[in-house]
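Hypothesis: this fold can be encoded by more than one sequence.
Test: take the structure tokens below, design a sequence, compare later.
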């Protein structure tokens, strides 16, 4: 998306944003990207760390192929927290102020429909204990964990998820896949970052 939240705040705030986000990435891949960027000498005043939605997901094709097996999330919660801590430390070691950002909430019914494309919906629903809202709660637990890690390490937080939930119709700011913000959602996130930017404190 051309007019994403970062490109919008570049225009409104006159700041340079180096967008290193990767579509579909888990925090394991984000850590490798962070390490690669540091080796390349990339630096900044602030480093945004946002993950959780892909980490809490499952390999649904594997679930459907072997529904009776034990399946782990793409990045189990304890590993997610450990890697987030490492990324916060790495940012500080490179004299970059880490900012932990929570992801927008899922629209459960849309996300459930999306993950079932080409797969057996009944198997997936059974895996979820007959409760598709478990998808929402899973993502929520990762968002809460990210905030807990940030507080533990005294890192600043931009709680995008909470901001979306204050909007009674936040679904209107999400794509039909139920997980990615649409253009309106990116505009909303840009407003959040514009406001929060004034309170963020540089550590270095």
């Amino acid at each position: 998306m051309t007019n994403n939240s970062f490109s919008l705040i570049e225009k409104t705030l006159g700041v340079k944003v180096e967008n290193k986000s990767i579509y579909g990435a888990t925090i394991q891949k984000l850590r490798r990207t962070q390490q690669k960027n540091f080796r390349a000498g990339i630096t900044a005043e602030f480093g945004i760390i946002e993950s959780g939605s892909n980490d809490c997901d499952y390999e649904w094709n594997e679930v459907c192929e072997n529904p009776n097996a034990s399946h782990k999330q793409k990045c189990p919660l304890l590993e997610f927290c450990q890697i987030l801590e490492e990324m916060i430390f790495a940012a500080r070691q490179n004299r970059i102020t880490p900012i932990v950002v929570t992801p927008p909430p899922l629209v459960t019914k849309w996300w459930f429909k999306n993950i079932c494309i080409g797969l057996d919906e009944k198997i997936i629903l059974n895996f979820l204990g007959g409760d598709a809202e478990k998808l929402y709660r899973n993502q929520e637990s990762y968002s809460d964990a990210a905030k807990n890690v940030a507080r533990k390490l005294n890192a600043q937080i931009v709680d995008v998820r909470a901001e979306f939930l204050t909007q009674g119709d936040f679904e209107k700011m999400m794509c039909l896949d139920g997980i990615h913000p649409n253009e309106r959602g990116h505009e909303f996130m840009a407003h959040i970052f514009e406001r929060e930017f004034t309170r963020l404190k540089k550590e270095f």
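The chain is about 50% helix and 5% strand. The longest strand covers residues 46-50.
Hypothesis status: open.
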